[in-house]
Write a structure and sequence with these properties.
single chain, alpha+beta, two-stranded parallel sheet, 5 helices, 6 strands
């Protein structure tokens, strides 16, 4: 599990087994412990319990509704930012292909963890990361989002 900000910087990650659900409350609570604002996610994270937990912590979960769900009224800004969610996939691609994170022949748990930490550390030092290029302008006491 991986959370990034609008600049492509890794904010939080959590390593779980492959059979752990994306909506696991324990995992998401620990990842979003000191966060607030909006969290854009894919359809796999949609859950009433998770949404309520995050909302109680000051985080608004925004995701495209599933096909069998009613449409949710999203602001124009949220709709635009939801389309930019593909940036997380670009970060995952860079971690796998450039940082060689997806290596399957580890001989020990220690080697696996060293490979994981070194890949994440190397990514943090990249001079150019996938980002939204959002700028905030302050005019007349209000913040305007310019994308």
């Amino acid at each position: 599990h991986l959370i990034i900000n609008d600049k492509g910087e890794i904010i939080a990650f959590f390593l779980t087994k492959g059979n752990v659900d994306d909506r696991n409350l324990k995992v998401m609570k620990s990842m979003t412990e000191n966060m607030f604002g909006k969290l854009f996610a894919d359809k796999g994270y949609i859950s009433k319990k998770l949404s309520d937990l995050l909302f109680g912590n000051g985080i608004q979960l925004i995701a495209k509704p599933k096909k069998n769900m009613k449409n949710v009224n999203l602001s124009q800004t949220d709709r635009i930012l939801l389309r930019k969610r593909a940036i997380i996939e670009s970060v995952n691609d860079e971690l796998k292909n450039i940082c060689k994170l997806q290596h399957t022949r580890h001989r020990s748990l220690g080697n696996f963890l060293i490979n994981l930490i070194s890949a994440l550390s190397a990514y943090c030092f990249f001079p150019k990361k996938p980002s939204l290029n959002i700028q905030f302008e302050k005019k007349h006491g209000q913040l305007y989002l310019v994308a």
